[in-house]
Amino acid sequence: MSDIDIRITGRAGRITFTRPQALNAMSYDMCMAVDAAMRQWRDDDEVALVVIDAQGDKAFCAGGDIAALYDTGTKGDFAYARRFWRDEYRLNAFIAEFPKPVVSLMQGFTMGGGVGIGCHGGHRVVDDSTRIAMPECGIGLIPDVGGCHLLSRAPGYLGEYLGLTAGRMAAGDAILAGFADHFIPREKWADLIEMLEASGDIAHVAAHALPAPPSSLGEMRADIDRHFGGGSLQAILDSLSADDSDFAQKTRAVLARNAPLSMACTVEMLRRLRAEDATIRQALDLEYRFTWRSMEDGDFLEGIRAQIIDKDRNPKWQYAGDTGPEAVPDAVLNHMLAPLGADALTFEGENRQMKIGFIGLGNMGGPMAANLAKAGHDVTGFDMADVTIAGVKMAGSAAEAAKGADVVITMLPNGQILRAVAADIIPAMDKGATFVDCSTVDVDSARAVAQQAEEAGLLAVDAPVSGGTGGASGGTLTFMAGGSDAAFAKAKPLFDIMGQKAVHCGAAGAGQSAKICNNMILGVTMIATCEAFALADKLGLDRQKMFDVVSTSSGYSWTMNAYCPAPGVGPQSPADNDYKPGFAADLMLKDLRLSQQAAESADADTPMGALAQALYAQFVENEDGKGMDFSAMLPRFEKRGHSE
């Protein structure tokens, strides 16, 4: 991704924002890429710590990229923004709770979404250029991304002051307010990063730090605490109005420009969070209640219009009187901060119910959908056949199953049908939802559908599976996924329910490419394994003795050791059940044909793949292989002589 550089260097997981021309503003894809990387690094013993930094001198991250939120919100589509905030807030909590040290180096502007990324780790570094702020009340929002948690823990009533005024914190201010830990001059950052990468020892951060610079906030503490401790926006405004000091009059003028509803809710949120000594999760839950309603019932869209779109700096706020903010009724505050019920924010380790559309409920898709429903997800399915799947509600059409879904999964016979279904369901899906195709199809179809989905504002993953019907029923499939980091991150929790392993293979089409290559190897090795058993029979070699030798020597393979085609030998397999299909020979032929289609398209020489395709075509179309397991090649070879 050109906007972010994610890699492992030495002992450090490295995340660098690389869009300085946009002040490193945080997009949804950037957010989900960070999430995906950190979830992988959490369990990677080679990664001792995480370092987050940014290119450019002006900003670490100046906030969220809100143009897409405005575009969808003004069209009456609130789902995209809600999904953005939900996933961003989950990432904020994940960073705060990360079990390994997280180092953030924050130069220049660090605002909004940048605070959510940079200010929740345990080792937050600032320099002389740092300016940290929570300016959300100026655009009709509230200090979110966990900002209210940080503000509620600031000394005295600095939180109320910073949250309502959007005051910019220099290095000393940020350390005083609890948004940063260490002051390290910028010229030392490169050396610090190099030492962290080489050693994985977090002690280098403190060793590089200098004493914190003076804080202007500290000098204003008496005035701030006197005026901002009243417990409500109206009490703060009344206190400032009664004081003719320079501080009071300037501060009241700043508040007069911001959204009264946002400021009133901010004060109420900080009061609640401070009283409850709340956790980061509790703070994010409270923030999400407001942001979830902010477009429909709040001033967020008007704030973006005035500040970002039209830039007239003249927003028409609710509760903005001629002489300044008016009192916001308690009933309105209670509504904006009321629990969301089924729409409430959830986190890792909690029950995250998704609304899932599942299209294609055959031998593979049916058990996969059932496993998702069993895990607590709300699954609506559709299939051309009249089927009943435990826990799955049935829709009358594919588009009906896809409407309003967080994720739509397809499991379809071929690329032509996939293209047709995609053309039907993509227009019905909400922008920001995820389209996961688990079919095994040609690479060109996978890429075409992914492009169509992305152009419609969806996340797209091609994720064919390996493991057969047994793996589908048992939830032990392997997923080979292609698509963006953000799309893979969204689908990964569902892969974890339906399977035992998911590998992100690359961009769109990479999942199909991996599946095709894998199954070409599988088809070739199964033929070789069956040929070897047939040869052993005619040489008078006992099958069990052959298995004992080959399974522990250089002939070792999955088709020998895990899926042996000889009945009564090795672990139980379809050979022990009259070759009733676990993976049908028909499907192997389909996959081998896809491999040769891809080989022709890529100008690749695959003679063994071509021979395997020809043998399976003969077996399925001209012999008795149709409807049999692909390992039923063994009885075929048993009957044939050398010249046949």
Automatic annotation (TrEMBL):
Q: Tell me, what's a Pfam family for it?
A: NAD_binding_11
Q: Which CDD domains match?
A: crotonase-like (cd06558)
Q: Which residues form the Enoyl-CoA hydratase/isomerase domain?
A: 13-320
| Top-level EC class as recorded in UniProt | oxidoreductase
Q: Which GO terms describe its biological process?
A: L-valine catabolic process
Among SUPFAM superfamilies, the record links this protein to:
6-phosphogluconate dehydrogenase C-terminal domain-like, ClpP/crotonase, NAD(P)-binding Rossmann-fold domains
A single GO molecular function term of this UniProt record: (3S)-3-hydroxyacyl-CoA dehydrogenase (NAD+) activity
The alphabetical list of record keywords is: Branched-chain amino acid catabolism, NAD, Oxidoreductase
Write out the catalysed reaction. 3-hydroxy-2-methylpropanoate + NAD(+) = 2-methyl-3-oxopropanoate + NADH + H(+); a (3S)-3-hydroxyacyl-CoA + NAD(+) = a 3-oxoacyl-CoA + NADH + H(+)
Ranges of residues in domain 3-hydroxyisobutyrate dehydrogenase-like NAD-binding: 509-634
Going by the entry's taxonomy, the superkingdom of the source organism is recorded as Bacteria
Per UniProt, residues of the 6-phosphogluconate dehydrogenase NADP-binding domain are 355-506
Pathway assignment reads:
Amino-acid degradation; L-valine degradation
Write the Enzyme Commission number(s) for this entry: 1.1.1.31
InterPro entries annotated for this entry?
3-OH-isobutyrate_DH-rel_CS, 6-PGluconate_DH-like_C_sf, 6PGD_dom2, 6PGDH_NADP-bd, ClpP/crotonase-like_dom_sf, ECH_dom, HIBADH, HIBADH-like_NADP-bd
Q: Which PANTHER family match?
A: 3-HYDROXYISOBUTYRATE DEHYDROGENASE, MITOCHONDRIAL, 3-HYDROXYISOBUTYRATE DEHYDROGENASE-RELATED
The family this protein is said to belong to = Belongs to the HIBADH-related family.
Q: Which NCBIfam families would you find in this protein's record?
A: HIBADH, PRK05617.1
Instruction: Return the protein name.
Output: 3-hydroxyisobutyrate dehydrogenase
Natural source organism: Antarcticimicrobium sediminis
